[in-house]
Amino acid sequence: MKETEWSVSRGIESIDVKEIRHSDSAPVTRECLADAPAQANRSRFSRTLNTGLSATVILCVATTLVHVLLVFLHVAPTNTVSTRYSPLINSWVYPFFEQNWRLFAPDPDSVNRQILARTAHTGSGGSVQVSGWFDLTALDHAAVRHDPFPSHTAQNMLRRAWTSYVDTHGADDKAHTARALMMQRYLSNIAAQRVAAHSGGTFDFIQLRVVTLPIAAFGSAAGNRPPTPTETRLLPWWKATPHGK
To answer: What pLDDT digit, counting tens, does each position of 197-216 carry?
Structure first.
């Protein structure tokens, strides 16, 4: 009788173990099947992200190398490559990456230029009122002096605008190309905006006068005597508004 009871209890235990094992294994299988698509999606997204990052890095490196090469050819002495690909080089460099120097032969400015502006306004009766000369260069110098971190606008905008104007115009101050017309408007807009910001009022026309002064040599015998102007260039009247439009 005891042996029968013991065998029955062993049978019950074996059944319970099988049921427990079966019940424990089924949810795990279902969970693994449910997680498989999510893992596949994450893996696919990770591969796509890595591919996009790699392509972006390659594109940035290639663009940087091309930029350095084109700027190098622009500032390097004239050679066969720069002459052959001059249109491509100029289209990339101008107007945003323009360089005002030449490799192995820098060409710094040897003169100072004083740029002045005056405005004209036509009254209701037809009379024309002309203002006095306003020194734009002195305004830039005041903004740079004693400033440890002067802005690019105060240092270079007006000066580079005038240099570009001279490079694109002849002695007659007439714009014969689209770039020359663009530089004329650019210079006029800068002058109009600065005059309006510091003088106020309304005006219809603006005129510039550029005085070229030589840079005195260090220790010159002239002392503190101001240099004699080498050129005074009076530009024609241009149509303009206080907002430079």
So the answer is: 888 778 899 999 999 988 77
